[in-house]
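forwarding from the other thread:

> can someone predict this with dinuclear copper ion?

sure thing
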Amino acid sequence: MATVLAVFLMVGCRGTGNDFQSAFHPASVEAREMAGLGWMMVAVYGSVFFGTMGLVVLALVNRRSNGEAPGGSDRFVLVAGMVVPTVILVGMLVVSLRVSAAMRAPETAFRIEVTGNFWWWEVRYPDHGIVTANEIRIPVGVPVRLELKSRDVIHSFWVPNLHGKMDMLPDQMNQFWLRADREGVYRGTCAEFCGGQHARMGIDVVALSEDGFEQWVQERTRTREPGDARGKELFFSTGCAACHAVGGTQAVSNLGPDLTHMADRLNLAASTLPNTRENLKRWIVDPQSIKPLSLMPPTEIGPEELEALLDYLQTLK
Ligand code: CUA
């Protein structure tokens, strides 16, 4: 029963991206190996469960008229109680070791640093000069080395369609890797309880064609246009710049997500809301109603100024 329930729980998580967030919809070598092992475990241990229950029912039905259970033969007890479990456990051990061996990190020069924060992810491409948040873009078919850290408590990086989990620790960098077989958006989530908004600490991995990725890098690193002047002024006067950086401006704080390319992202507030003007407005005015305990404070701003600020933010591509 527990196995069946676990399967429903694992396949039942829908993300905001275009791919079903599930370890049973693999889109990489690693995820496929793990999904294979998962299904095998469901089949083998499910059969053991139903087989055992079948024997219990049989025993109850064949109960002797005096209420005593019939004694099985010694041979049956030996085979069903020792030989069968030993064969099953050794067999599953061999399969698990084979899957572990297939999990060797691939050689790659492409690295991305991901840092966990209360409750968002900082993403840096040190070799491309790109800083972003809550979204990782990678080229299809190219393994990417991830350097995982945390700025506060222990988080855990988990994009189930692509790989297993890896802890993000405050005092040590953990290496991990990702690769995607096909283009798509794969939603991930923090897999270690980390406080009030652990459940809304999502991340989107966008796998692009190699050309698409190159184009994205070029767009992200080109010289920026100045953007809406009034909105930019408001970005500083209303206090946004105290926590958020925007490349090419005086805003350099990294307390909150870097907003240099925020208009380009799929979602807001760590994959909590689709990135639309309406949601951005709600998030700026009253973030606590969307993510209580989030470190983002509400912004006191008049309706006209708010529109100008939104105009500015929506030019940040
Ligand atoms: Cu971060 Cu849970």
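The longest strand covers residues 111-117. thats all i got for now
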